[in-house]
What does this fold into?
Amino acid sequence: MLNVPSQSFPAPSSQQRVSAGGRSKVPLKQGRSLMDWIRLTKSGKDLTGLKGRLIEVTEEELKKHNKKHDCWICIRGFVYNVTPYMEYHPGGEDELMRAAGSDGTDLFDQVHRWVNYESMLKECLVGRMAVKPAVPKGMLPKSQVTDTLAKEGRSSPSYDWFQTDSLVTIVIYTKQKDINLDSVIVDHQDDSFRAETLIKDYSYIIHIELSHEIEDFSVRVVENVGKIEIVLKKKENTSWKRLGHPLENHNSFIPKKDTGLYYRKCQLISKEDVTHDTKLFCLMLPPSTHFQVPVGQHVYLKLTITGTEIVKPYTPVSDSLLSEFKEPVLLNNKYIYFLIKIYPTGLFTPELDQLQIGDFVSISNPEGNFKISQFQELEDLFLLAAGTGFTPMVKVLNYALTNIPNLRKVKLMFFNKTEDDIIWRSQLEKLAFKDKRFDVEFVLSAPTSEWNGKRGHISPDLLSEFLKRSSDKSEVLICICGPTPFTEQGIRLLHDRNFSEEEIHSFTA
It folds into this structure.
């Protein structure tokens, strides 16, 4: 619900999906686009029906507003009159009505917790729930966290700190053995110092206002004991009496889905044409940030468009397909790259394309459920991509060819409309020539008469020839990404060929 349009909406579990037609969203009436909604919110029209008043809403009052012509929804303790938004919601009225007259926080988080509903619905704010939750935002009662950890055989992390004349070292004891540099995100903005450690489905957060200024910091992980050391370089060689003052969610261990997205502003360094409508954007992370996006995960880019914050998901890529095979990836790399298709009639990508070198874009923490553990014992990797669905495959492909000792075969079937649409075609062909384990097949749905390769859309015939194991019992993983109809059809065809859920990973944001 309350979604910004995107190619990956709605979520795979959403009831509004149409399995036969594969439509990705409900058709809207003319004049009901996201930009039309933004214009309406700027018009000064009373969208709450309360003439600018804010009220406290009881549960009994909220329940009364459960109809299409009178629909209130609570999200994280705030109540919105979404009645005027009904016709603008790309998921359709029925999706919104699932939360009518009730607390829709869980439903909202299941589908797209990343949407900035506060900005989109600020003119629809009715007020706050009269009964405040007993537990602070996003946090489970400590006993519930403890019980959950006990069932999973884990204990809660903790931290300590010590200092020398010139350094302060924060030590985080995760009590886990699968922690690496990807697991730690550190942001130092002004006096605010925030370190988030990702531990399976939880986040351990240290968030403080430092008592003194620092010049720089470094991050070190001792993987075999799950210890993280964040070393702060003091600006002045004075003794700190305390580390600082606690800020929001400091020293908390929270389910990751409840932490909210944390953004940092990144500077546009370059953009270059890759195809006629796709560009490679290079953004530089702030110098006071430690941030590495794990393989197979995505982030959200955020821009303010006509006064409203708009967010879209994108998967970072390498700067090129071949360069990282020449030398190892540099740790603490300050640059992050995106291959993005520009839609001339879209809302977000034209604004992104109009940014000048030196302008800023906000980037969120990583999201996604892809796990490197899926590569364990892997022998055959099959990649199915359509259009910019190729982007998650870039780092997956790189990681597989450089880090999986048992790997025998990697095959990519890349679907596009025309030859001009194929991203990094020459690089893919060079990689196939260089590494005999890798093979790529291009499939075009609208080729010219000169095209001698495969034609059409994803189908049983194409997959039967493509999905040949290196041996009868080889360990297989199939990754698939593209527009919603492509992904849904592909998954159905893979199930028809008796591939298990564990052997299939679909990338959706």
